[in-house]
Amino acid sequence: MADARATILESLRAGGGGEPVPLPSTEVLAARAWPPAERVARLRRGMEAVHTEFLEAVPGQWPSVVLGFCRDQGFPNLLYGPASSAGKALASAWTPRDPELIPYREPVETFKAALFEDVAAGFTTALAGVAETGGLLLEPGPEEPRLLSLVPPVHIALLLASTIEDTLWSAVRHRGWGRGAARNSLLISGPSKTADIEQTLAYGVHGPRRLVVVLVDNL
Amino acid sequence: MHAETGFRESAAQALGDPQIRANFRRAMDGLMAKRAAQFPDPADLQALRSLGTAIRARSLLKLPELLEQLEASCLRNGIQVHWARTCEEGNELILGLLRARGATRLVKGKSMVSEEMGLNHFLEEHGVEALESDLGEYIIQLDQETPSHIIMPAIHKNKTQIARQFSQKIKDAKYTEDVDELTALARKVLRRKFLEADAGLSGVNFAVADTGTLCLVENEGNGRMSTHVPALHIAVMGLEKVVETLEDVAPLYALLTRSATGQAVSTYLNLVRGPRGPGELDGPREVHLVILDNGRSRIYADPQLRATLRCIRCGACMNHCPVYTRVGGHAYQAVYPGPIGKILTPQMEGVGVRHELLHGSSLCGACSEVCPVEIPIPEIIVRLRREATHRDPGSSVEGRGTGRTATEDLAWRVWAAVLSRPGAYRFAAWCATRFRNLIPGGLPLLKAWTLARGKPVPARRSLQERVREEGIPHG
């Protein structure tokens, strides 16, 4: 539709123009800043309000926290990205007696049915967190595929407290979230939800029914 | 989409339906309260609105350049870009993409532009199953209805109606009014569809020119399923959706979620920057972006009406509109109902065809007061009312002047004739004051007024007569 492109752009140009709009002030966003401990508290408050669950861990011990959680919940398995550094740490904590640790290493075309039907939980790392509203920033890719955080009924995400940003805006501006080479970037604030039936909130409509954040206190 | 009956008739019908009124009243009251709770500080809200307004206005000012930049960035990222002047062109384009890949099963995330295009109907006529996967959209698709709200498409239905519908239309479904069970039922059906789909389609909340990123806002995860599970992802957007940088998205996103549903943040903000890359194990093999005009470039050409294109589709104007909250979305018989629909639909379809919508407003200003990007909706309504009945030179409004009826025309001619001739005016005033009680309430034009109000009765004496009688000096 080369004609369509030319026609549309031509008519926009013909009808364009106007007073220049001054660069907007971002002071209102820059003013939203908190000390690190307050960021953690805000993130938790925001995410817990939408049914996100938290597990606490200290640096180096988080794999055993994940393992303990999977055992307690009776998960038959956990899907993870074997090439990520967190994935490697996770695998080293696992023993053959534990719930099956399934590496996501096949293209989805050959793995789709099993992914949708057999996987109990998926594990990913979070690149950072957002304090203001509560949320995790992810950048899925070759090491941690896109569907790891979406298809399994439970999503377990690893978050370092030191990575929590004040706002989404500061994460984009200072951390460059979403501006890098990743082909998919995500903000996740809780489990999948809907209020489409009579405004009543229901969780787990299409994506994970539960979001569990393993929060590592490395402040 | 064109109205089969007028807004006046369908609004009257809706007003007489206690179920519709109760469903909307409950929902809108809740949404208004939730939005208000998200903006406790008026100064903070105004600063954010000013920022959002400036970002949208600046984006529109640079629109052609930003669209070209978006195209170049998308192509660099591996997203193929297509342009459509009309809905028909857009539909053909999407069908072509699907056919070229042998795709017959399409899962859709929520997209108002695809509603505008009548895409589902078009694809189904051409042998493609187009399944809505947003729960609200799925509910109305089962009943072959259209959305009654741009954010909550099934808001006109209550859970009893949905329970009945699911038990009748979903295989092996038992009757239940439990919302969790109903949701689980939809999950089961739709998960199978995501797994089997050949292609996925989504809308676009914001398209970022400098990075070539398509931003999708949602709570359910169906948007992510539709855009990441199938091998082909097609995104459709109106050409006004572009913004300059990713930094611009953050404040707009904050305004959108808070204004729409009173949430500080949605469950997902999904940034799509390209198809599956080297080494990636999932994600679509191809991503296509269809940019639709459908009258937007015409709206763009008018400096006042251009503000319409600032809209970020939050629906707050609907939630706060005293007309919408009483008649519901279907009364408008338009893809975009409520205040924004009142100005968007007549501009897209022509003011002559849809000018009736412009009168479904009390001009109370609630819509512009809550609009996160400060669209002066009442001012645009007044402007379009004039456009509907006048052929002003230089105006680019489609169908201008064609909404003028013969009765109205005659009434204004008589009015002008009387007011421009002192003798005729005095005679008319004498008749009106002397025969004041004899004027029939059923006269054309007066009839609409007297349907719900008492007949206006002129005074016993005209002002001129009283001034003269009382000896008040005048020039």
Automatic annotation (TrEMBL), chain A:
InterPro entries the record matches: FTHF_cligase-like_sf, LUD_dom, NagB/RpiA_transferase-like
Query: What Gene3D superfamilies does the record tag this protein with?
Result: NagB/RpiA/CoA transferase-like
Q: Which Pfam families match?
A: LUD_dom
> What's the domain of life for this entry?
Bacteria
Name this polypeptide is given: LUD domain-containing protein
Q: Where is the LUD domain?
A: 114-216
SUPFAM superfamilies in the cross-refs: NagB/RpiA/CoA transferase-like
Per the UniProt entry, what species is this protein from, by scientific name? Mesoterricola silvestris
UniProtKB/TrEMBL annotation, chain B:
The record's section on Pfam families has: Fer4_8, LUD_dom, LutB_C
SUPFAM superfamilies associated with the record: alpha-helical ferredoxin, NagB/RpiA/CoA transferase-like
Please provide the record's keywords in A-Z order. Answer: 4Fe-4S, Electron transport, Iron, Iron-sulfur, Metal-binding, Repeat, Transport
Signal peptide from the UniProt entry? none
Molecular function per GO: 4 iron, 4 sulfur cluster binding; metal ion binding
- For this entry, list what GO says about its biological process: lactate metabolic process
Q: This protein is called what?
A: 4Fe-4S ferredoxin
In its UniProt entry, the species of origin is given as Mesoterricola silvestris
